[in-house]
Design a protein that fits this description.
The protein contains 14 helices and 19 strands. By secondary structure, it is an alpha/beta fold. Bound molecules: 5'-deoxyadenosine and iron/sulfur cluster (SF4).
């Protein structure tokens, strides 16, 4: 295909944004653009943005702001703000970024191509934040800009109906809707045919997949995906504790390809705060879910999200979160200081927690979790884990593993989602290998392949 120039896509935010960016990449590829990793070489710059916290939003404005001068030098350069901040800001985005060419909301991706054509014929400052039922179905299914050679995200649902009081998602990504299982399976078959061996199925609340559409349940979808021959592993995120069903736990236990790892955001250990967050469960209900999971799948890897300093959270309520974190023993946590989002109801709640106090709570929680993660990793030494090889380690450590100077150090993940490094000259991306762990570090494990 004739090259129309270079595209640079910068992604801020969650895994869904990574998937969305790849979809934008397929559109640009179809228009004849090649990917570049150098923004200076680009003819089109896309920033796919995140509105979940104030800091993420600021990152988007500052990234795109950098190209104001560039655009003066090269008026043909196209700059695009896509995703959640674009949806939230609409026309207002031009107040801070007058040089921006296109504001492309979360449901406007199917019209991306048309807008690029309009920009090329001289139109400027286009805004599209209109809703749409079909988002991905009309976009090309292909791997255009390949970042990870073995693992891909696949979005199976859009939006959210839970309306947690702190969260901007239902406001920027709309109501919950599920893709058809046929289109999901077709996309994953295409990925597997192209060498992808692991997929992570994405939705804000995958447990309610298909419920509105009266289609397959999520457990049934997992069975369909597990039947794809060339695919080795299936992960998924995110599960809502209130909807984690026995069926799903059984499906996870029964399907070999489904990894023994679950991301189950708890958000807080205090029942009063959980209620104010509109989470729909108590700490005890969360506990019962963890118990059910661990008795069905003993080696379950668990991660969670936690917000500290939600409006009116007392020091005692924060201690309840610390106690829950200690009792559960998560493998890892993602913890955040509460951030006001003007479209979310909690922005109007009284008794905000002081910023310095929020940071103190956050740092205490993160330091505490570090000790737990370290202990959990240390418990892995001497054990054998199956690793899906992702490629050569970006960092070449010496001294940790018994390697000769000529042995490549490879990296991959265990089913429970731990990063594992090991020496090998023969293994390649996409191979499954058993690794005996002989060293544990805070964020990774090191070991030796059992056979090559
Ligand atoms: N402030 C801080 N953290 C938030 N999250 C969502 N909204 C906010 C907010 N307003 C966190 C939640 C969610 C994760 C993706 O981001 O923990 O699970
Ligand atoms: Fe936001 Fe709650 Fe929906 Fe997650 S479940 S996206 S936190 S509203």
């Amino acid at each position: 295909m004739q090259s129309n120039g270079y595209a640079y896509i910068h992604t801020i935010g969650c895994q869904m944004n990574v998937y969305d960016s790849e979809k934008l990449g397929t559109v640009l590829h179809a228009l004849g653009y090649q990917q570049t990793r150098d923004p200076e070489q680009a003819d089109i710059i896309v920033c796919n943005t995140c509105a979940i916290r104030h800091k993420a939003e600021e990152k988007a404005f500052s990234f795109l702001g950098r190209f104001a001068r560039e655009k003066q030098k090269n008026p043909r350069l196209i700059t695009v703000m896509a995703g959640c901040v674009a949806q939230q800001e609409g026309n207002n985005a031009f107040q801070r970024l007058p040089h921006l060419d296109l504001v492309l909301g979360t449901q406007a991706f199917s019209r991306f191509s048309t807008h690029i054509d309009a920009l090329k014929s001289g139109q400027r400052q286009i805004v599209d934040t209109a809703p749409s039922d079909v988002i991905f179905e009309t976009l090309p299914d292909e791997i255009a800009f390949k970042e990870n050679p073995v693992s891909k995200f696949v979005t199976i649902m859009q939006g959210c109906d839970n309306y947690c009081t702190y969260c901007v998602v239902p406001h920027v990504r709309g109501r919950e809707r599920s893709r058809s299982w046929q289109s999901i399976v077709a996309e994953i078959e295409m990925l597997a045919d192209n060498g992808i061996r692991e997929v992570t199925l994405l939705g804000q609340n995958v447990n309610s997949y298909g419920a509105k559409e009266n289609s397959l349940s999520f457990a049934e979808l997992l069975e369909k995906v597990a039947a794809i021959d060339k695919l080795y592993r299936i992960r998924f995120a995110t599960s809502h504790p209130k909807d984690l069903s026995k069926d799903l736990i059984q499906a996870m236990a029964g399907l070999d390809k489904v990894c023994n790892h679950l991301h189950l955001p708890v958000q807080s250990g205090s029942d009063r705060i959980l209620k104010k967050m509109n989470r729909g469960y108590t700490a005890e209900v969360f506990w019962s879910r963890i118990d059910a999971l661990r008795s069905a799948i003993p080696d379950m890897g668990l991660s969670t999200d936690i917000i500290v300093g939600f409006p009116s959270e007392t020091p005692e309520e924060f201690e309840e979160t610390m106690a829950l974190v200690q009792q559960v023993g998560f493998d890892s946590i993602f913890a955040f200081a509460y951030s006001d989002r003007s479209s979310a109801p909690a922005a109007k709640f009284s008794d905000p927690v002081d910023e310095a106090e929020k940071m103190a709570r956050l740092n205490r929680l993160l330091a505490f979790q570090d000790t737990i993660t370290r202990k959990k990793n240390e418990q892995m030494t001497g054990r054998v884990v199956q690793v899906l090889v992702e490629g050569v380690s970006p960092k070449q450590h010496t001294g940790f593993v018994k390697t000769t100077p000529h042995t490549r150090q490879m990296t991959g993940r265990s089913a429970a989602n731990k990063i594992v490094h090991f020496p090998s000259d023969t293994l390649a991306a996409g191979d499954l290998v058993d690794i005996k762990i002989d060293n544990a570090y805070p964020h990774s494990l090191w070991g030796q392949p059992l056979e090559q």
